[in-house]
Specification:
28% helix; single chain
Length: 100
């Protein structure tokens, strides 16, 4: 008899993760529309979702993409940076795919 490992990942977690990944890609596509920017999306879990290099200024900006969510009263939910993100200078990008 073969026993399969039980996954602790729920359907809701997979849906949330898929929505998050989709919004990271959509955000990267928005940056890619600017010909002066080079967009790099690191693979895997980490403190940075998108790294953008401005080829005119040589400056880079690191982003952690968060899907914009709202409370029942309509107020935006604000996400905070982790200590590692603060140390690295990562900015939170609250991405709302409905506004694009």
């Amino acid at each position: 008899m073969v026993y399969l490992a039980q996954s602790s990942t729920t359907s809701r977690n997979r849906t949330t993760a898929a929505k998050g990944l989709s919004n990271e890609l959509l955000a990267a596509a928005e940056f890619a529309k600017d010909p002066n920017l080079i967009v790099f999306t690191p693979v895997g879990a980490g403190p940075i979702d998108i790294l953008v290099l401005n080829i005119k200024t040589g400056e880079y900006t690191a982003y952690d993409v968060k899907t914009q969510n709202y409370r029942k009263n309509g107020w935006k939910i604000v996400r905070a940076r982790t200590g590692e993100q603060k140390r690295l200078g990562v900015k939170i990008l609250n991405f709302d795919p409905e506004s694009k």
